[in-house]
User: What shape does this take?
Amino acid sequence: MSVNQRMLWIGSAAFPLDNLTRVEATKVKPQRGATFLSFLKWLALTAVVYVVVNASSGGDARIGESGNPVFVVFLVGLVMYFIKELLEPAKPILAVETAGGSLAVVTLPSVDELRTIAGQIVHAINHPEAEFTAYVHELNNYNGPVFNQNGGTNTGIKL
Assistant: This one.
């Protein structure tokens, strides 16, 4: 990301500095409640599939050693995924919002580094001659360095 000639560049997206309404470095906490509800949904779906398979085989479907291990493997995978999601730490992000409602989000390992970049952006807003370049990491959950949103609509990921 960089500031050059009164424009903030995040990847290939350009934002006029005069159009920025919010620059915030914070940590985004994982949505553990939504993860738990998703786990329950998949668990219920697995139970329904098992009941259907059991009914179609005349009550002969078994789970475990003498039966089909597919359900056991799926349940173990589901529980492992759920535990991984619950143990996910909060991610440090730098959110840049414009007057038009667009939002760009980038990350680094430390909130302090992101606060420094936020300070450089604010300094550049107040000082037209200021320019800088900073390197940011990609957001692992979003598969790219910048996640763009316009209002409530995802406008894509810019690399």
Summary: The first strand starts at residue 2 and ends at 4. The helical segments are 32-56, 70-86, 111-126. Residues 32-86 form one domain.
